[in-house]
Every structure is written in structure tokens, then in C-alpha cells.
Known about the structure:
This protein is an alpha/beta fold. The protein has 11 helices and 13 strands. The chain has a 9-stranded mixed β-sheet, sandwiched between helices. Strands 3-2-6-7 form a 4-stranded mixed β-sheet. Bound molecules: adenosine-5'-triphosphate and alpha-D-ribofuranose. Residues 111, 171, 191, 227-230, 232-233, 246-247, 249, 251, 254-259, 261, 283, 286-287, 290 line the site of adenosine-5'-triphosphate (ATP).
Amino acid sequence: MKSNSTAPRIVVVGSCNTDMIIRADRFPAPGETVLGGTSSMEPGGKGANQAIMAARLGGDVTLISKIGYDLFGLQAIELYRNEKISTKHVVTDVANPSGLAMVTVNSMGESHIIVAPGANSTLSIDDVRKAENCIACADILIVQLEIPIDTVGFAISLAQKYGVRTVMKPAPAPLSLSDSIISGLFAILPNHVEAEHLTGIKIDGADSARAAADMISAGGVENVIITLGSGGVFVKAGDSYASIPARDVEVVDTTGAGDVFCGAFCYQVSLGRPIMDAALYANAAASLSVTRFGAQRAIPYREEVDAII
Ligand code: ATP
Ligand code: RIB
């Protein structure tokens, strides 16, 4: 049964983390210590970032996730509520800490991230099963790979059972994804590293991106959107192809740009917008996020994106 609300219903099954961020001129080499600049501790996690982007655009968002029984977990719950995200299916794991990400950002705005999944690694099939009614009523399901792959696969199969479209941001980069997972997707949004992992094709421009998109879609995914950082976006929508250039902006921190792209793309798709239009909108949203520091605090609001599109 669909809700009476006109806002599209978006369900995110995924991670929440706290990001420990240090900014430095450059990344250290192995064995080296470098003196960094400012530091901060901020909410992050690919699942939560994507959920917040969709909520800030106006989506009716439910997050299915797991936190630890600690301060970080409590802070995360409060934050999601402030963003008007339903936390009914954010579960507490008393045996593991909340997810933690160590993020370093260099002077080019590029980031290196290591995630200690903690409670994210115990988000189970049973946890998702308890949210079956919620997934059944969704307009779109969003998944990533910072939680167990079996849980991701189960969420996709539930969505398929109810005819709900699923979009995957395949991050962190997987070595491979099973055919059953790939073939259940409406769209997949790898960055160039993730696309290389999935296909073995080195992505260095539109031709290689097209070859990778063809290979991924041959596995049964309807739409393949490869994000290329400052190179913009390569889109394969059904049988159509397009390259969208990145917007010309002053970059300070690209952390979470892929999540912003994903959340905005899914919101647009859930409104019924064509794939190309959704990708253009997402490209604009992500271009705003890279001009600001941090993951969640860099996520733009709807008025900001509408103003530049
Ligand atoms: P992250 O892992 O940092 O969250 P990602 O590697 O998954 O991000 P990217 O491909 O780097 O994703 O970037 C996603 C989108 O963000 C790009 O397709 C583009 O729309 C926007 N973007 C990223 N870098 C830039 C840039 N330098 N200038 C303008 N837009 C950018
Ligand atoms: O995509 C950016 C996110 O990756 C960060 O917020 C960090 O928590 C990791 O999940």
C-alpha cells in the first residue's frame, strides 16, 4: 500500500559511520608521517550520506542500518531524525562499536578512506526482513557495499519481489558481484575505480567507460552510470549513451561526492524523471558538494541544486 504523501518513498539499506577527517597538503607514503592541517569528527557513511541527500531534496526516506551502543550511534540517530529520515529500522548492536572511517583529504580535495565497519558488519538478513513492508511500499531501494553482501542480496531480492527498482552504488569497490545481484538492479553507479574492479577495463575516457558500461549491462543491469570525478559522468541508459561534463567549480573536498550523486539521482528517478535528466541533476548536486568540506555537511539542499540546474 503506497502512502498518501506525494513525496517519493526511498529506502536505503546501508552503512552509517563517523568520519575522523584530517586535511593535509599530501597523503603520506607508506612508513611516512606528515604534519596535517585541520581535523574534524563528522557524521558519514555511504548509506547515511545517500539517505540524507534524498531527504534534503524532499524524499520520504527510511534508513535500514545498524549502529553501536555508543555516543556515535546516538548522535547518528538524532541527526537522521533532524533530517526527517525514518529511523524505525536503524538497529542497535550492543556487541560492536558504530562504524568509523579514517579520512584524509589532500590539497587537491581528493580523499583516502579506511572504514572499520563495526556494527555495519552485523546488519543481517533478519534486520532487513523486519523492514519488508517498508521495502514493499518503496518507490526505490538504494544499496551500497559497506554491509554484508548477503544482506545486500536479500534486500535486492525483496525489492524484486515487490517490483521495486533498486539502485546500487558499488562502493567500496568489489572484486566481483554475483550475476544474481547484478541482474536484479535497475541501475548501478560505479566510480571509475569501482567500474575497473567490476570489468577489468582501465577507465581512461569515454571509449573505455562505454566498453565497461556495455560489459556491466550485459549482466542484466538496465542502466549503468559511471561517475568520473572531474571527468564528469558517463551514462548508458538502455541503448542510449551520453557523456556529461563535470561542472566547473572550485574543489575543496570530494569526500562523499559519489553518495550525493547517488542520492540525487535516485530521488529524480523516483519522481519518474528520465535517466539522462536524473544524471544531469545529480551531476549538479555533486558539483556543489565538492566545493565544501566534509561528507554530510557538504550535502546541498534542494533550493541550492534547483538554483543551478
Ligand atoms: P567519493 O568516493 O569521493 O564519494 P566517488 O569517487 O564515488 O566519490 P566521483 O566519480 O569522484 O565519485 O564523483 C562523483 C560526481 O561528483 C562526479 O561524477 C561529478 O558529478 C562530481 N564531481 C566529482 N569531482 C568533481 C570535480 N572535480 N568537479 C566537479 N564535479 C565533480
Ligand atoms: O563516501 C564517503 C563515505 O565513505 C564517508 O562518509 C565514509 O564514512 C565512508 O563510508
